[in-house]
Write a structure and sequence with these properties.
The complex is a heterodimer. Chain A is mainly α. Chain A has helices at about 30-45, 50-80, 90-95, 95-115, 120-125, 130-160, 165-195, 200-230, 235-240, 245-255, 270-295. In chain A, helix 2 runs parallel beside helix 6 and helix 10 (about 245-255) packs across helix 11.
Amino acid sequence: MSSTGGPGGPPAGAIHDIGYRHYAGPRLGLGAIRQSLAVHSLRGNFGLGRTARSKVMPGLLLVIMMLPALVIAAIVALTDADKLPVRYPAYAINLQVVVTVFLAAQSPQSVSRDLRFNVISLYFSRPLTRRAYVDAKLAAMSGAVFVLTALPLLLLFGGAMLAGMPLWSNLRGLGVGLVGAAVLAVVLASIGLTVAAFTPRRGIGVAAIVAALLILAAVAGIVQGIARDQGSRAGAGWAGLMSPYSLVDGVRIWLFGGPSATVAGPPGHAGGPVFALVTLALVAGCYALLLVRYRRVTVS
Amino acid sequence: MITTGALTKRYGERVTALSDLTVDFPAGVTGLVGANGAGKSTLIKILLGLLPATSGTASVLDLDVRTEGRAIRELVGYMPEHDCLPPDVTATELVVHLAKMSGLPTTAARERAADTLRHVGLYEERYRAVGGYSTGMRQRVKLAQALVHDPRLVLLDEPTNGLDPAGRDDMLALIRRIGTAFGISVVVTSHLMGELERVCDHVVVIDGGRLMRSAATAEMTGRTEQLTLEVSERSDEVAARLVAAGVSVRPVGSLLELAPVSDETYDLVRDVVADLDAGLVRLARGRHHMLDLFRDGAS
């Protein structure tokens, strides 16, 4: 309890004559409201505008994600190396545990919280529609994962330039890496938010997302390894469909070529389009599930 | 402000939340009274365009709830009955954010949030996380978010729930002020009938989803003026004599409630009590509280 205000506090019941003023200014439409929610949520995904404690986890993960890139950039710049030791599109996949933990920590923060504390009632009793809410949250989480996976690539590029590596090949590598990061961000955000929206308890949401992504990645890796050892490159390639990381990497290979960042890329001619279709279906499916989930939410 | 026509809401075959409700809510402060489960919250959700009615019509500020829900929600503020505040943000941050969610630009949202929080009586504590607030403070934050976009009408669902008597009085005074000084129409629900008559210009009573009464507060409580009589002995005989003389008598514990009230009623009571030598302890003029109205209406 504070000494001012609140029931029992001295001035609480007093009428303060600060004359009510009506608002005659502009009222923005749904688009602006959705954008405002997206920006607010994106900031929230990094703990900005929240308590100091909620900044720790995303801040720490961002640092962990950047650190290897920083070290690599420093070493190649100091040694004037003629090639980066890691390819741009492979960086996020090599550090996928960090990305997964970030997604698992921040997705429930983004959506479960609104459901659990019934803040959703305050949103949906406003002009904001359910679809606009889902759109904003997806955009914000995709943006956050993209920031997490794209910033290290910029560091790598900076190191490459300081080392005097060729501009165009690096620019292309960076471009491919950024496109891959963008696709990965949308896929991961869709999965993370969908799981979180169905698990209002934050701890369960975190566990479910970590478990799903890490187990899927591990299983995909193991199956890929076994298939390769059995001499089935195609089997190894198809197994990549199981994990979002190898899935998105497959789409990247199909679009831009280059070696696989996992055990094997999509096999044959059909592989690439199938990986792309599965990616699209996954995102569309998650989106549909989210819309269904939020249509069911009642304002109370 | 609000008009409903034969509004009906059924959940499945068995549960009827609202039944053929036809009522007008005038501008000013209107109380929506009913027991828990009477259909108050259902009505509010229909009025916000969040719940489709099974049949019938409803309009808010001349906007149809079926087709113009979003426009309604721009112009109406809603304070939910249940807890709805995230614990880890300050009241200021929350209310600024929700102002933006109602379409206010950032600068206006900040100004309005600061003003509104002061109006509801939150000062320095608005910079602290909501998680540490008392119930009274939380109710104020909920009220502030309903007012921050300067709505033309606010729907307050059980705003005095969980408050102690002092907090209740503060909240009711604030509601009165919203209706008068702020010039914003208010619909306030409560299952505690007594408290609403102090702040409402008009009262709508519903029970089991049906309209029981809709009238100006003064008219409703005035019509039911009554006398409370207490005698030291022979209470039954006094009652019998009064009934014989055409007065309606209702025993409430050791008291007798008499109606209607006129000059003749006083004379009659004086004569009967003196005649029977019953020993007059108390004769007080009072009025029905809404609780009684509701009890009468429901029976």
